[in-house]
Amino acid sequence: MKPLQSVAMGLVIVALVARLDGYDLLPDPVGWALVLHGVRRLPNLPWPGAVRFLCWLALVVSVFLWFPAVPDALADTDASLEWAGSLPQVAAVGTVCAALARLAEEAGDRRARAWLRTACTLVVLTGIAPAVVLAAEPGAVGAMLTLGVVTIVLVIVLLFRYAARPWAVPLVDQTSTG
User: What is the pTM of this model?
Assistant: First the structure.
């Protein structure tokens, strides 16, 4: 599996929810482990320490959030705490998109760079939207959720689409004969 395919599949697991007795049958920590596996294998990844740290942070936070009592307690205490619990994931996805945009730019892949920058911008908007909506316009929750869904779907599609680009494939994969 190519590195970006691993990252994309990990984000699919993170994005999908299949609950049984409050537990997600597609545990986000498994998804984040796939994301980490993929980013570790990316060649010349910009800011590798920051990207890996944020992915690890998202993984650790997702372990706690997997237990239904934790997100329920956060939501019951204050909606902003529930939002704060999602920030490590948002930061990880945004940083991965920014690093990939940089990789594409260095490789001269302008179109990929533009799309990945767009995805990064949408991720940032998704991260700050709850703060604005919760504070000022509670009626816009539907639009905020739609933005989140559109953003993660776009990121996943882009990762699959760019998985075979030379800048996203380790040298070992580039020289293998299929």
Answer: 0.90
